[in-house]
Specification:
Blueprint lengths: L7 E6 L2 E2 L6 E5 L5 E5 L1 H9 L3 E5 L6 H14 L2 E10 L13 E8 L2 E8 L8 H4 L3 H7 L3 E7 L4 E4 L3 E7 L3 E10 L3 H12 L3 H4 L11 H19 L1 H12 L12 H4 L1
Antiparallel strand pairs: 1-2, 1-5, 3-4, 5-6, 6-12, 7-10, 7-12, 8-9, 8-11
């Protein structure tokens, strides 16, 4: 359930990603050491042929974007990330798909047509069971069209996780911001229970063989585990740890104001 933690750039076209080798070259960085450098002439070439530009994790790029990130963090107590997408008329950057996080998309420049289809999975998460599905699966399971609309500068749309969608630039150049929201889920409770269970003798016992007493020994042990889990979930100490986890779940929003912070 993690977002990338650093700013990155991608180039996408016709539903797939263009390999970095097609727009990155080997060179020397400003420190004189070998580095991978963006070849902007190659980027221009791909853009002229309909590629889209993607900037990842730009939550602190501008004061406005940062403020929106702060508001979403406070509202949902979630991990918030923002990506910028720049696309060109008549070319689709990404094929129809669903996201494993909630999306708030804000149109900044140009017009873009969005199509939203039915939800195939309820509450999918960032796990290979949902992330490794191929494009053919998505095209087959996107279901009927629920709505189609055109986003213009200033428009905002909310797409809950799991709903299939796709977007196509309608004007010469379009830019939109996509704010993704990830909140704590039930699986996170299981993770906390695991840490709690390490200190519990019942959870550290060896599993009975499935053949022992015709399987009755394993059944009895599973019932003991279920009972201990029920007790843990009702334990005030565990509840306090869970509340602390939820409180600290969002990405920290760092703030520094120069020169004031340097002299205090």
């Amino acid at each position: 359930q993690q977002h990338p933690g650093s700013i990155g750039e991608r180039v996408a076209q016709d539903g797939g990603m263009i390999a970095p080798a097609q727009y990155v070259r080997e060179g020397l960085g400003r420190d004189g050491k070998p580095a991978a450098l963006v070849d902007f002439e190659k980027v221009r070439h791909h853009v002229r042929h309909g590629a889209s530009l993607v900037l990842n994790a730009i939550e602190t790029l501008t004061p406005g974007v940062k403020r929106i990130t702060e508001v979403l963090t406070q509202q949902f107590s979630g991990k918030i990330s923002c990506n910028l997408y720049c696309s060109w008329s008549g070319r689709q950057a990404f094929d129809v798909h669903f996201d494993t996080h909630d999306v708030y998309a804000m149109q900044i420049a140009g017009d873009k047509v969005w199509r939203v289809y039915q939800r195939h999975f309820n509450s999918p998460v960032n796990h290979p069971a949902f992330k490794k599905l191929d494009p053919a699966f998505h095209r087959e399971h996107k279901g009927p069209l629920l709505m189609e609309f055109t986003m213009r500068p200033g428009d905002l749309v909310y797409i809950p996780r799991g709903f299939y969608h796709e977007a196509l630039a309608e004007s010469a150049g379009t830019v939109h911001l996509s704010f993704s929201v990830i909140q704590a889920i039930g699986v996170d409770v299981l993770s906390l229970l695991f840490e709690h269970g390490i200190l519990d003798e019942v959870f550290r016992q060896t599993l009975p063989l499935s053949s022992e007493r015709g399987g009755a020994a394993l059944d009895e042990y599973l019932m003991r585990l279920a009972g201990r889990m029920r007790e843990m979930l009702r334990d005030p100490e565990f509840r306090a740890r869970l509340e602390h986890f939820i409180r600290d779940f969002p990405y920290p929003i760092e703030r520094i104001k120069l020169p004031d912070d340097a002299v205090k």
